[in-house]
Design brief:
Strand content: over 45%
Number of helices: 1
Helix content: under 10%
Order of helices and strands: EEEEEEEEEHEEEEEEEEEEEEEEEEE
């Protein structure tokens, strides 16, 4: 009925685990403090920029040459990416590239009148920064998506808007039959960023995936991403395969179940050379699982 859900602090608004015949409709999700911050460019050079930051909208402080941003029960100093936007259009400026500020190494200096000087230590910015533009500093860690669906069947989402999320707006893993109709991933008024990662993400799903009349804009990554998960064979003991997850964001996913059909693939050229079926599967740790196969 048009409910507006406003969240505070780092959290995942909704998790559905092992559910069937799920229907969510006619609501929106937003956060009082986004997981990014903005600074208006006053001066800029090849490796230095002076920003005017609205401390009410984007609370911050400088400590030990690090720029800290704060929210309800969180305090971060890792600026994972910094991108340049036009205040007139609300869009990325042409030729803007990723600027991994924390990875590059920087210093921060507090100046009078809520201004901050950022200086790269050993390199130049990867794009020309222009006074009057807005620099968006993303400090989200992708830990909290907007809505998570794991091992669910027959999921229907109608007219749901995700204005903001620290991670992916919608993530579906190991789900069967998913439809999104009339959904929007778009920032609320006077904000530049919606999801700090993908708008929609589907991992090892089956059945039908339907997206109809949806809008996905101003997210920091893909509009949609549909893929499976590869695991590497680390050890073989008879019919038991010890399989390793190769990406840290995949660790712990309950990927294999009895009855699943596995395709064996050569790592070197990704060609298939055999198949087998899962008899049983057990988790060894976050990175490793043990699968017993039929041959």
């Amino acid at each position: 009925n048009g409910a507006k859900l406003l969240f505070h602090g780092k959290m995942t608004p909704a998790v559905f685990d092992g559910c069937e015949d799920v229907c969510i409709r006619d609501l929106s999700v937003d956060f009082d403090r986004p997981f990014y911050s903005e600074g208006l460019v006053e001066e800029a050079s090849a490796n230095e920029v002076i920003l005017k930051i609205d401390a009410v909208r984007f609370p911050y402080y400088v400590c030990h040459e690090r720029l800290h941003f704060t929210g309800w029960k969180w305090d971060v100093s890792r600026i994972l990416n910094m991108m340049q936007y036009s205040p007139l259009t609300g869009d990325l400026e042409p030729e803007t590239a990723d600027c991994f500020l924390d990875k590059y190494g920087y210093t921060a200096e507090e100046l009078p009148n809520r201004r901050v000087r950022l200086r790269l230590r050993e390199r130049e910015f990867p794009y020309v920064i222009r006074p009057g533009n807005v620099l968006v500093m993303v400090h989200a860690t992708r830990e909290n998506p907007g809505m998570v669906f794991s091992e669910c069947r027959n999921v229907r989402i109608d007219n749901v808007t995700i204005h903001h999320s620290e991670g992916m707006a919608f993530i579906f893993q190991l789900c069967h039959n998913v439809s999104l109709t009339g959904c929007r991933i778009a920032p609320s008024e006077n904000r530049l960023i919606s999801s700090c990662a993908d708008a929609t993400h589907f991992v090892n799903c089956s059945g039908d995936i339907l997206m109809k009349d949806c809008v996905m804009e101003s997210q920091c990554d893909d509009a949609t991403n549909v893929h499976g998960i590869y695991t590497r064979v680390q050890k073989i003991e008879g019919n038991r395969l010890y399989l390793q997850f190769m990406h840290n964001q995949q660790e712990g996913v309950p990927l294999y179940h009895a009855g699943d059909r596995l395709c064996l693939i050569k790592c070197g050229d990704m060609t298939a050379f055999g198949e087998c079926r899962v008899v049983s599967a057990e988790r060894v740790n976050g990175q490793l699982c043990c699968v017993t196969v039929d041959r």
